[in-house]
Amino acid sequence: IGSFFTTLDHLITLHQRKHSRLCNIKKSMLERMFPKEGVTVPEIRFAGFTDAWEQRKLGELCAEFKSGEFIKATEIKETGAFPVYGGNGLRGYADGYNHDGEYALIGRQGALCGNLNYSSGKAYFTEHAITVSANRNNDTKFLFYLLDLMNLGQYSGQSAQPGLAVGKLIELEAMIPRQTEQLRIGDFFWHLDHLITLHQRELERLQNIKKACLEKMFV
Fold first, then answer.
1. pTM across the whole model
2. pLDDT tens digits, residue range 63-87?
3. Which of 82, 140, 147, 217 is placed for a possible disulfide with 102 were both Cys, Cβ 3.0 to 4.6 Å?
4. Rounded to an integer, what distance in angstroms lies between the CA atom of residue 143 and that of residue 81?
């Protein structure tokens, strides 16, 4: 029994270290693959890209940048055909959808306003989420990571119920590269997030196995 749990703890530790290392890599690369303030190029770039990044307003980069739509709480269920996203992420499922495609979602209200989620395919976005999709000259995945790096929560109104105004956000400026470089950057971080998620799930699975075995292997 002791040997079994020692081996299980070893596997848990390995996945914890791998997960932490990947999170640290992502944090470091986000800081180095986007230009620092006052600079027109990042520290690290993919081979073949040399053009200076350009400053643009967020609203100029998007085909859509607006709040979602109201949905009754009774229409949101534990299971269903289409996911429903609110200000803090997945709320449940509904029988209908109001968006179809790739979207970055910004939490609009509450303590977690400014947090980011991503949706791909058919989904329903509530009025508590700001939906963002790139125009044909830009990439939505790239914008997702750019928005996350901008710490949008700092622009919330100073009131009892913090909130973000679309009109204010679309006027914010950021440095961006050409679309081809955006695609490479977006895909790089997307695959990194995929690896992080895989290790997080495996870590949770092993922790659940350990908990269940501790309960069942002792009288």
1. 0.88
2. 999 998 998 988 899 888 899 998 8
3. 140
4. 27
pLDDT digits (tens, 9 = 90+) for 103-137: 999 998 777 788 899 999 999 999 989 999 999 99
Helix 179-216 with 2-32: angle, nearest 10 deg: 160
Nearest residue to 78 via CA among 95, 55, 61, 53: 95
